[in-house]
Amino acid sequence: MHRGDLDGLAAAAAAADGVIHLAFKHDAMFAGDFDGAVAADLRAIQALGDALADTGKPLVTTSGTVLFAFAGLHDTLTEDDTLTEDDTLDAGPRIDAENADAALTERGIRSSAVRLPPTVHSPLDHNGFIEGIGRGLNLPRSASRRPRPKPTSGFLSAHAQADNPSSSTLTRHLLGWKPTQPSLIDDLGQGHYFDAPPTTPR
């Protein structure tokens, strides 16, 4: 099936017990056509919705917490507030797709969206560029108070500099989710991001 084949996508969805939609045209986005990639994602969700309407089947899509930072939602929060599952926006790039997914519950679909964070972390990740790294490098605390530099590397730079405090409290309650791995700050404190890279034998 061609990646732009909405009829094929709908037929596959109709034959499935449920759908998890993870696709996004990142190649178009990195080529400078972010609007085109966003529009294609919205069309795909609409096609899936048409195929699954009144079936009671689940449809899971993905969104991102950082979208709300880019839209300025965090500017309205107090210093101690975080983004929660109840926070929504009326419109915006990719937010339109999340809202379209949420609206499918009215069409007899068990729809939900997983908001992904802009970064992930683990002992296997040695490319960290997130909070707390300054401590591991013994940088002075005052460095964190310097004016934020303007983005210089496009898409990645904007994500790395976004202030994106978010909470998973409601998700933990609804799903009985009890994370057991280290939190981001605890993981950074273990030091593996700052270990010397292994040398390659010659």
Automatic annotation (TrEMBL):
Cross-referenced InterPro entries: NAD(P)-bd_dom_sf (IPR036291), NAD(P)-dependent_oxidoreduct (IPR051783)
Region (Disordered): 136-169, 181-202
Protein name: Uncharacterized protein
Species whose genome carries this gene: Nonomuraea composti
